[in-house]
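Archive transcription. Copying these from loose printouts into the bound notebook so they stop getting lost. Printout 1 of 2:
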Amino acid sequence: MRFLQATSDKLLGAAMLAVAAFVFIYYTTWALLLPFVDEASALQDLFPDRKWATRGPALLLLAGLAGIGAFFAKVSAAEARKKASAGKTA
């Protein structure tokens, strides 16, 4: 049983690493190399408009910060409810 779990963890880790490597290479090509490629090149068709090279990560950062803020608010509210109920019973 443990062997299967270790194997699946390794496969998941390898898949996550492959996705991260692909995203890194794709974004690096898009943001850093593509401006030096001719506009008529077929390579330009594989990437979105250049303005999204900055807007996309900015939107992901905002979404991540909103998720962290929501998580913090949820945990804080749960702790406040727990303290309030403990104060009523005491």
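Printout 2 of 2:
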Amino acid sequence: MIPDDPVLTVRGLRKSFTLHTIDGRTSVSLHGVDLDVAAGEHVAVAGPSGAGKSSLLRCVQRSYLPDAGSVVLHADGGPVELTALPDRALARLRGRALGYVSQFLAAPPRTGPLEVVATAARRRGLDRAEAREAAGDALHRLGLDEALWDVDCGVLSGGERQRVNLAAGTVRPPRLLLLDEPVSALDPANRERALELIGSLSGQGVAVLAVFHDLDAMRRLATRVVEMAGGRIARVGSPAEVLGAAA
């Protein structure tokens, strides 16, 4: 069933890879996936390694181009078919309405956390002064020491880089946010800050599609869990229905 306020509509999504380093065989990652995500909804994607979870996120973000199917983002100007969008138009849309937070930060050389996050805020419509203020607020909220704000991101620890990545993804949040293991490198205190931030997005009307291996995080954040197996959606339901009760 299509939600009343859809932000993302995925239909018949298929993706395969040719294994050139082995013998040229084809590995199918997604077999005709259908999925909807509504405004203010947090959909967590569960399943074992190789189930197709990250492939789904990357096809939505279009770092992977699917073999077949449609990925529609219902943006402010109307529905946009992401699989057919020219690269420049896609880049503009990613800046404004579509965010992606991976486990790893890709920052330009000699660029500090404040500038990385402020650049993301400017892409989402803030002027330079507003963007720096919003970036500082985001970094404070995630507990990144101000002494690190102008340090080259390349010398930060894995957990610090992950917090910068999350701050950039959530500053003036986009309409759709994709999360791929965004708290995997965080210690308990910073994990708690990050989960509180992610949890606040639903109240702002942000649609979240997230991959976590952390069952506690899924139980805490998800309004719906999609369980994948073998590149297909195997089950959909509440966290309690799909994941079971917490131990």
